[in-house]
Amino acid sequence: MRFFLLPAFATCILGMLSAPSATAQSRTGVVNFQRAVLDTAEFKKAYADLETKYKPRQEALAKAEQELQDIDTQLRASQGQLSSAGTAELQAKGQRKQVEVKRMSDDIQEEFTKDRDAALQLTSTRMGEVLKKLADDVQVDLFVDAGSTPFYRPAMDFTDKAVAAYNLAHPAK
């Protein structure tokens, strides 16, 4: 058994010794992909547009939540003063308002998330294309995400260059 392992071990060692000369010529760069996408002017504008789009609905939700809180306050303040029918009516009104608030909140969150994710997807796809062109421009063979790299030298970080190249290729409209 030992006789068979020796040639295999020697082959592995020779392969490891010859591998550095083949990979020494490649250049690797690091990009914080998440930061690069979020820092683009196009995504910042898209996010600001989303906030503007959803602001009236957020305000309506806040108003409905305040109405629900007012009903709850009214119910607590009038405890023992209202008839059982009046209390039941106020409780039913509060439950209807609670359902309305929950639906509004869920709808706003779902639609906002969908719109935000669409903007992120578009920007991420375009960033991938920009990184391919940037790799050619700066003669880098591979970009690695900074989040998956335990250590890298600052000179290897191309995040700011990626954002600048993206903003040049896709200016915010």
Description:
The protein is mainly α and 173 residues long. The chain has one domain: Protein Binding, DinI Protein, Chain A (2-Layer Sandwich), CATH 3.30.910.20. 76% of the residues lie in helices and 5% in strands. It has helices spanning 2-23, 33-38, 41-77, 84-138, 159-169, and strands at residues 28-31, 142-145. It has a two-stranded parallel ribbon. Helix 3 (41-77) packs antiparallel against helix 4 and helix 4 crosses helix 5. The longest helix has 55 residues, at 84-138. The radius of gyration is 29 Å and the shape is elongated.
Query: How many E strands?
Result: 2
Query: CATH class, please?
Result: Alpha Beta
- Give the low-pLDDT segments: 1-19
- One letter per element, helices H and strands E, the order comes to HEHHHEH
Distance between the termini: 69 Å
Structural class category = mainly alpha
CATH H-tier superfamily: Skp domain
How would you summarize what this structure contains?
The chain has 173 residues and is mainly α.
List the helices and strands and how they pair.
Elements (H helix, E strand, L loop, with lengths): L1 H22 L4 E4 L1 H6 L2 H37 L6 H55 L3 E4 L13 H11 L4
Parallel strand pairs: 1-2
Helix pairs in contact: 3-4, 4-5
Provide keyphrases for this structure.
173 residues; mainly alpha; Protein Binding, DinI Protein, Chain A; two-stranded parallel sheet; 2 strands; 76% helix; disordered N terminus
